[in-house]
Amino acid sequence: MEKRMLGKTGRNVSIVGLGTWQLGADWGNVDPAQAQAVLAASVEAGVTFFDTADVYGDGRSEQAIGAFLADNTGLDLTVATKMGRRMEQRPENYSLTNFREWTDRSRRNLGVEQLDLVQLHCPPTAVYSNAEVYDALDTLVAEGAIRNYGVSVERTEEALEAIRHAGTATVQIILNAFRLKPLDEVLPAAEAAGVGIIARVPLASGLLSGKYTAETSFAVDDHRNYNRTGSAFDVGETFSGVDFGQGLNAVAEFEELVPDGVSTAQAAIAWIASQDGVSTVIPGARNVEQARSNAAAGFSGIDATFDVGVREIYDRYFRESIHPRW
Asked: Which of 81, 110, 128, 304 gives the lowest tally of CB atoms within 10 Å of its CB?
């Protein structure tokens, strides 16, 4: 597995990491033993970066990773968590007092003295330009509670604002074959500033797995069912904000680009990893097989013809409706 520098953290991480939203049971129930098996399979396949958040299962995802770390001491792993979504989303709640409380809880959940990387979890837009917020984060670094901090964003403008602040080590943003806007400005700006890019929702919530059809249904407690219109949280987190039916049509064309011996999901992940400025891609995995298959994308090359094809599909299906919004 290739490794790359994760922005200003000074840490090299695998180009394919593991997103662990699903281990908190927000995508349906997850057995604790299965969660441990997914983490173990990922590491065995070369993954050295886990991404979680304090609200994933109200801490269950962090706790699952904490249990894994306790049982596997000595591994060279980097764990990123996120904070800020456990309170009403008002800019004034992003304060040093709350940051201390939130990071202390995450440290307990993960069983660590110091958090590798803490990301503001898609806060109100005004937070990204508030100098006091960055001062508070710098204080946490100085106090030793966290090593580094970054942001997770919904919009490119938020990413660009965060990149302007010297302490920002990483930016996490939705980037996949159906969501290309970050390529225009965010990735070049981040690369110039030495800020790492963590690409989330790489499979467009499973659309780019190639396994869905018009008849596919999702559980009542799965966000791909209840959040299709963005009624629960930002619509971009579900299928990257694209219409499900239109997405299926685009997937059919995407699959025609996929080389022999590579799955649709692997090609989608490998394409993101091939983009200049991307530090790591964080697909989720519900089972051991998915974890191993996703990690294998770290060894799959993508050529220029594939890249051109991806951009042509985006232009035909999504640019007009998606590009201006995010």
From this structure: 304
